[in-house]
Amino acid sequence: MQPILPAPGTSQAYMDVSALEAGIITLPMALYIKGAPQTEVAVCPSIAFVLRHSVSGKQLVFDLGIPRNTESLPPAVKGVIAKYIPVQVPQDAAESLKKGGLDPADVETVILSHLHFDHIGDHSPFTKATFVIGGEVKDELFAGFPHTPTSDILATSVPLDRTRFLSASEFTTSIGPFPKAIDYFGDGSLYLVDAAGHMSGHINAFARTSSDGSWIYLGSDTAHDVRLLTGEKEVGEVSDPRTPGTMLCAHVNKEVAITHIERVGSLMKVPGVHVLVAHDWRWYEENKGGDAYFPGKIPPKPL
Asked: Are 14 and 211 in contact (CB under 8 A)?
């Protein structure tokens, strides 16, 4: 059964959504797709986004992609990059904004889907922005590197004096297949969705993209391949080289992550809904350098 989304109201507010170049990452697909050959890799974007509110004109950024200076990352992360997941950053999120005519210093809000290194970017150009993250990661952030030398979370991922941690009690709205969400502007234009399973505090963004019923779901790391959303493939796991005899999955809670994947996948059957995950290399190949990138915008999906 297709999920039912809230109908637009009179003079319904919506969000213009634009993609940002924010780095390239090479993913070993056996970690993400069950049965994928150990040698299979996918060269993927790590897409960030700009969202502009149609009524107030307020602009916010969702995710910041890969930091240009990977030397600043925790040793545990640098080791993974060197051995398994090479990255390159021809243009980071802040540079993409400037190229499109928006100074990062003028951005009021940055929402991070989660604190894995390929989504935190570099917060330093966003000197006035309030950062918004899922509150469940707070303890891990405070105990991150360098406080805990083995942590893969950078304790300076966000400017703590300007960071809002979303508490579980704020996710009081349900929308479509998602039982826990926040109506961010209070007008049905943008929802932040509890995307449990991938990592503590993982959130997605679900935005209206027109006044008459189009939407875009920004799924971040809900799935690292669209075939997981369509049901063509299953979530994978590999032997953990650090701990022989144990398995390593891209999600901290595989079963919870699968439930969320199924919910997001159900949106792909709904007319007018565009589902876009951060590492969708097919979409990137079709759209890079085009009008979907800031200062252009991703066109609303036809109803």
From this structure: yes
